[in-house]
Amino acid sequence: MQKQQGAALIIVLVLLSVSLVIGMSGMNAALVDERLAGNYRASVQAQMNSDSMMSEIHSSMVGDLGENFNKLQSDMGEEKEKIYRWDEITALLEFTSTFDNTNKLKVKVKIEGEEVIVTTQDDGTNNNAVRETVAIYRKGSGGTGSGGDSGGGSNDNDSNSGDGSLSPFEAPVVGCEGVTSGSGSTISSYRSSDDPWDKDQPEIYAGPLVRTTSNGADVELTGGGQVHGGVEAIGKIYLNP
Predict the structure, then answer these.
(1) What is the DSSP string of 69-134?
(2) What is the per-residue pLDDT for 13?
């Protein structure tokens, strides 16, 4: 009989080894993607929590800006900067919160002359993701504030303040990470109680129709996308027909 060399066994073992390596690489890539997706989801949820905190504070502040300003000054005393727990600030400003888990929610208040700088921060409610939102209120400005996301964990304040400026929560379309409109889509506004919407004669919203709240958050219009109103971006505005 002809002597067998065992070549088939070697080839099968090589193929099995290659298949095992490819399979393990695919599993590792899937695990990494899952972690990245989870971290991104946690960061977005943290930013949404921070923005929601600021929205609740804003609703309370605009009720009587002068009185709330005095409450903060009286509580802080000689201090110019103080960090409050969420339950402390809700009790001080006397408003009801919708948050259940408030253990890692913080509010930093800083007084500079006639301005109150409020920073809300989710300090890790979702998988240790930290995000914060900044707003500036000026005494005698009629209760309006300006500001936005300060970049997630940073204490730098890049917000511009001024009398009559728009709160980041008063624009119909608000993007934390940016806004993109394309493929012929249209962002517009109209009064539904009147006639049906007419693309040729849309009702223009009084303030910015689209606004971003984060440093570097852009507004991009591509593929014929249109905005029938004002656009205000902390980042850049790209017009790519």
Answers:
(1) HHHHHHHHTT-SEEEEEHHHHHHHHT-----S--TTEEEEEEEETTEEEEEEEEESTTTT-EEEEE
(2) 86
